[in-house]
Design a protein that fits this description.
The chain is of the alpha/beta class. It is about 40% helix and about 20% strand. The strands form two sheets. Strands 8-7-6-11-9-12-10 form a seven-stranded parallel β-sheet. It has a five-stranded mixed β-sheet with strand order 1-4-3-5-2. This is RNA methyltransferase.
Length: about 270
């Protein structure tokens, strides 16, 4: 049964609005997914959905209506709100009128290792821009990586902009968030997976590096690059060369280039 809420003072409305802040996402263990496409990806991936909030306009859209029907069958809480109220809880500039409130799903490092015999892991070190972080996750998914590790100091995985930038890949790929560098180094050593760091100084051109075996490739902060602790432990340093006049590549672009080179090398050895 669908509920109708019209008051900004309603507790659900207050709770959903609070999820725009990391403090409350962490406290409640919840985050929001906005838009028809992302909501479809969430449901298709089998993620648990606590509540679906939508407007009458969204309910009239065939794709959104189908999605609401699926969620109803799954006993999800369904809440209809007026447009002006939805605008108050939305985290997007042009809301599509449908939002899922979803529990976080904590991935473990073992989830990444178990996906393939020769794991290829994208590691984010201090990446602060949600668009960059989300795009790296999307690129890792597209390139067939085993998973992603976001170290402490990265942007929040569950921030609205990060979630949207993954374009649904968050729901398909194990992403471990908040791991300390020293723990990652220990786990990689125990698993026999070499750490490869992207770095501008003294580095091998990425296409000349052997990326056909197990590897954890670290992509660093937009300004400072990979941290000293990880660089010191790296088995190899690689770089995407600049042939034109651009000062540098966006970290997400560099990640896509390198991860696809790893995929090419791995496919050529099959």
């Amino acid at each position: 049964m669908t509920e109708s809420i019209a008051s900004a003072g309603n507790q659900l409305v207050k709770t959903v609005a609070s999820l725009r802040q990391k403090k409350y996402r962490d406290e409640l263990g919840l985050f929001t997914v906005e838009g028809v496409r992302l909501a479809e990806e969430t449901v298709a991936a089998g993620w648990l959905v606590d509540t679906c909030v939508f407007t009458a306009a969204a309910e009239a859209d065939p794709r959104a209506a189908k999605l609401i029907g699926v969620l109803q069958e799954r006993q999800c809480r369904l809440v209809r709100v007026p447009d002006h109220l939805y605008a108050k809880i939305s985290d997007t500039r042009e809301p599509q009128g449908i939002m899922l409130v979803t529990p976080k799903r904590a991935a473990a490092f073992d989830d990444i290792l178990s996906r393939m015999a020769k794991p290829i892991i994208a590691v984010l070190d201090g990446v602060q821009d949600p668009g960059n972080a989300g795009t790296v996750i999307r690129a890792a998914d597209a390139a067939g990586c085993s998973g992603v590790v976001m170290l402490k100091g990265c942007v929040d995985l569950y921030a609205g902009k990060t979630v949207r930038a993954t374009m649904g890949s968050l729901f398909h790929l194990p992403v471990v968030a908040g791991m300390a560098s020293e723990e990652l180094i220990r786990l990689l050593a125990a698993a026999g997976i070499p750490l490869i760091a992207t770095d501008l100084s003294g580095a091998t051109v990425y296409s000349a590096a052997d990326l056909s075996g197990p590897a954890a490739i670290v992509f660093g902060n937009e300004g400072a690059g990979v941290g000293a602790e990880l660089l010191a432990c790296a088995a190899e340093r690689i770089v995407v060369p600049i042939y034109g006049k651009a000062e540098s590549l966006n970290v997400a672009t560099a990640a896509a280039v390198i991860l696809y080179e790893a995929a090419r090398q791995r496919l050529s050895t099959l």
